[in-house]
Amino acid sequence: MINYELYKVFYWAAKTGSLSSAAKSLYLTQPSVSHAIKQLEESFGITLFYRNSKGVSLTQEGVTLYSYIEKSQILISLAEEKMAALKNLDSGELRIGGSDSLFKHYLLPFLESYHQKYPGIKLHLNHGTTPETIAFLKEGKIDLGVVRMPIVDSQLEVMMGIQLQDCFVAGAHYADLKDQVLSLESLLQYPIILFSRNSRVRMAITELFQSYGYQIKPEIEVGSVDLLIEFARKGLGISYITKEFISKELEEGSLFEIQLDLKMPPSQVGFMIMRDMPLSNAASKFIELVK
Amino acid sequence: MINYELYKVFYWAAKTGSLSSAAKSLYLTQPSVSHAIKQLEESFGITLFYRNSKGVSLTQEGVTLYSYIEKSQILISLAEEKMAALKNLDSGELRIGGSDSLFKHYLLPFLESYHQKYPGIKLHLNHGTTPETIAFLKEGKIDLGVVRMPIVDSQLEVMMGIQLQDCFVAGAHYADLKDQVLSLESLLQYPIILFSRNSRVRMAITELFQSYGYQIKPEIEVGSVDLLIEFARKGLGISYITKEFISKELEEGSLFEIQLDLKMPPSQVGFMIMRDMPLSNAASKFIELVK
DNA sequence: AGGAGATATAGACCACGTCTATGATCAATT
DNA sequence: AATTGATCATAGACGTGGTCTATATCTCCT
């Protein structure tokens, strides 16, 4: 099999029409180039160049070879440029999996500044449940997952993100609860609005009630944080929401937090990546940014 | 600059999904392949493969690189196939320059058997005058020229071909000349049909008459052997033709040779190639065949 | 005649690519 | 649990082959 380095030499010799200038381009000496061309010609058994007093020119067969090699070399050059672009993050993509609410309320500012810093990187946001996100990660469809903790999976490496505080909130309709401190039990008298069954937050709150011997059964189940907010504001019930996601509503007073006689355990956001798998440059830079 | 051999290794590793099998395909050992891939990754600063327990698989960036390298490698493979085809004459072209009459009456059987032997070789016949043919040869537009001798040109290497005998012939209209032996001078009384002014044969006959102190002025000038034959048969005059080209007409009696009181000097056909220039395999095989 | 440019050739050298040997890890056996 | 048979990674030794310097040869141009 022919040493592909020889094609590189052939390409430059043909392109420049001179072994000496090919040598310069390749940072070699002229005899090396001469030798390389000779090797190529001998391995084909075909003369590729006419040697003139002022350089070299391709034979008919040389022209034929060049028509292939030129394209091939250009592709390699493009590949090298592309790789350089990927390396310095002028190009590439970052694929993040997780929940829409975390994207919107937590990751958005990071995504914005990341995009500003590396405008060439395409961002792919892949929303799904925690198990779906883990599966995507393992299939290599995303670089990074952002979900609620805890995650226990030996294949995954988990990094702590921000700590969030979930709480029960209500709107004007339940204004009389504003000054009260409720127990978990008393809360159950009111219509509860929870996130859909397969979410991490939902599982956590269900477990919390169970640990106190109660069972929480929502009147309404919704699929987005926006609906949790909306329904609570309309007075349809008491929503269990991440406090940080509704800072605007709390401030303007359209929602208020229900005070409880126990502190709700904080919930931790985590970044997951595959353990022992190389991380793309784009992804590691993003994690750096968030940290 | 990256060693292009590494791309070859990368290609096979990516294609087979295994460093071991890439090693087999490349007749290398597995550690060599491993080392090569590592070199490539280090020079890009990008991880190209995930290492699994049952082989390797491309990272996102690896896929990007592969999309370029695959095309590039395929082109090189095609180039190598093409070169092999050129080498064993399954492909290629042979470009011959010369006069139409020599092509038709002399070269045709050789061209036929050459084509039969090497059906993949495209034949290009480039007809023109001797100076045109020489110019084409020097410009590299033809591999080989077939012309009348003598040729004196230090850049050219000339090989003798067949020896031809030119003669004067007439048709039935001049039947009374059949048994006569004419001198050059007496010939001038008859209308003479000659090949056009820029041909070798024409120059030769003109010089011959001049060397005896006569000047030959044709009544008719034509551009093809066929017309020389046709006009002579129709009785329009006496044609000066290469005897070997009209063996059929002489045999069937539609033309007869005018006997002269001197022997016409034979004319030599020669093959010209560029001196000190490599000859294509296709061309050298043709010359071999003619010899 | 001489100089400047081109490629070819010869021979020396050493870097680097390749090898062998071994380690580490994983998965599918037994 | 232990074994086997894959995989890729690492270390270090070896030797080939690519590269260099020096020189020759040729052509063209001043």
Describe this structure in words.
The structure is a homodimer of 291-residue chains. The first copy, chain A, has 291 residues and is α/β, with parallel strands linked by helices. Helices cover 45% and strands 23% of the residues of chain A. Chain A has helices spanning 5-16, 19-25, 30-44, 60-87, 100-117, 130-138, 184-187, 200-211, 225-233, 247-252, 281-290; strands spanning 49-52, 55-58, 92-98, 121-127, 144-148, 156-164, 166-170, 181-182, 192-195, 220-222, 238-242, 256-257, 259-260, 267-274. Chain A has a five-stranded mixed beta sheet with strand order 4-3-5-14-6, sandwiched between helices. In chain A, strand 1 and strand 2 form a beta hairpin. In chain A, helix 1 crosses helix 2, helix 1 crosses helix 3 and helix 2 packs across helix 3 (30-44). Chain A binds a DNA duplex (30 and 30 nucleotides) through residues 3, 5, 18-20, 28-36, 38, 51-56.
pLDDT averaged over residues of chain A = 89
Query: How many helices of chain A does DSSP assign?
Result: 11
> CATH superfamily of the largest domain in chain A, called what?
Periplasmic binding protein-like II
Percent of residues in beta strands of chain A: 15-25%
Query: Largest sheet of chain A at a glance?
Result: 5 strands, mixed
CATH topology of the largest domain in chain A: the name is D-Maltodextrin-Binding Protein, domain 2
Multimeric state? homodimer
**SS elements, strand count of chain A:** 14
End-to-end CA span of chain A: 50 Å
Count of the separate structural domains of chain A: 3
Q: Enumerate the spans of chain A where pLDDT stays under 50 for 5 or more consecutive residues.
A: none
Strand ordering within the main sheet of chain A: 4-3-5-14-6
CATH architecture level-2 label of the largest domain in chain A: 3-Layer(aba) Sandwich
